Amino acid sequence: MSYSVGQVSAFAGVTVRTLHHYDKAGLLSPSDRSHAGYRLYGEADLVRLQQILFYRELGFSLDEIAAIFKDPQVNPLERLRARQRQLSEEIARLKRLAEVAERAIEVQKTGVSLTPQERFEVFGEITFDLSYATEAELKWAHSEGQREAMARATAHTKEDWRQLMGEAAAWRAELLAAFDEGEPSDGERAMDLAEEHRLHVSRWFASCPPDMHRRIADDFVADPRAFALVVPPSQQRQGLAAYTCKAVHANAARHAGGRTDSEEEAR
Q1: DSSP annotation string for 232-253
Q2: In whole numbers, what is the pLDDT of the chain averaged over residues?
Q3: Integer Cα distance of 120 and 43 in angstroms
Q4: Mean pLDDT computed over 57-70
């Protein structure tokens, strides 16, 4: 029995244009034509269409489907297993994104609400890039420190934010002065500034041992969005991110065999 394009479109749930496209792409050419030249699909054609729609539902591209059909060496089972792995990874990624969104909702519900004027007063030029924040949340999703930082940030009051941003601004001015005056990144002054930053993070967000501080500083160099949270672009100098990162690493090495974090934070 043969079926017209319109009939196949109706019971397969695809448009006539899609069927024509599959024909042009060589994926599904009807096995017969009517006397008037209209496409007619047989049972075998419908089985092939079912396969195409199955692969499309799983996210296979038309090129990938064509390769499966055309190359007898291609193992459809291996392709399906690979797609299953990709889908599992995507499900995990989306689940983490949903958790990020849920946390963001909680922050909005219970966090500090600031007017634009108050936000500028508190944060000044420091801006929070949502894409970076989301990526960071995914990157550190299984980190206890990240969870602690999120919880503590949510609990900060307006006055807390004013105080911590004031501390950050004073520290930033000292960092810029040390850099502009040519202080070496592994010198006492730069390392002390790195230590001050580490303790600032511990005091306001989450315990920040030297190893974690090194990873934070590595992001300063790897991602401009991360360093913009510390020094706004208008105040940055060429090489400043690398200078800060080197100072953090030098400070971490200095404290590797010295006082514990708790002892340092109690100073």
Answers
A1: -GGG--TTHHHHHHHHHHHHHH
A2: 81
A3: 68
A4: 87
Helix axes 188-204, 240-254, angle to 10 degrees: 90
217-231 pLDDT, tens per residue? 999 999 888 898 899
Quick one: pLDDT at residue 115?
Answer: 55
**Which tokens sit at 167?**
């501390």
Inter-residue contact 231 to 172 (CB < 8 Å): yes
- Type of residue found at 255: H
If you ran DSSP here, which 8-state letter would residue 20 be given?
H
Please enumerate in sequence order all residues whose Cβ is within 8 A of that of 176, keeping only pairs 6 or more positions apart, or say none.
231, 235, 237, 240
Q: Which of 73, 163, 91 is nearest to 122 (CA)?
A: 163
Tokens of 170: 């004073």
Query: Burial level of 43, CB count in 10 A (0-12/13-18/19+)?
Result: exposed
C-beta separation of 78 from 37 below 8 A: no
Average pLDDT value for residue range 259-267: 40
Question: At how many degrees (to 10) do helices 43-57 and 62-70 cross?
Answer: 130
pLDDT tens for each residue of 22-54: 999 889 999 889 888 888 999 999 999 999 999
Among candidates 73, 72, 133, which has minimal Cα distance to 100? 133
Please give the biggest Cα pair distance in the chain: 93
Query: Do the Cβ atoms of 199 and 265 come closer than 8 Å?
Result: yes
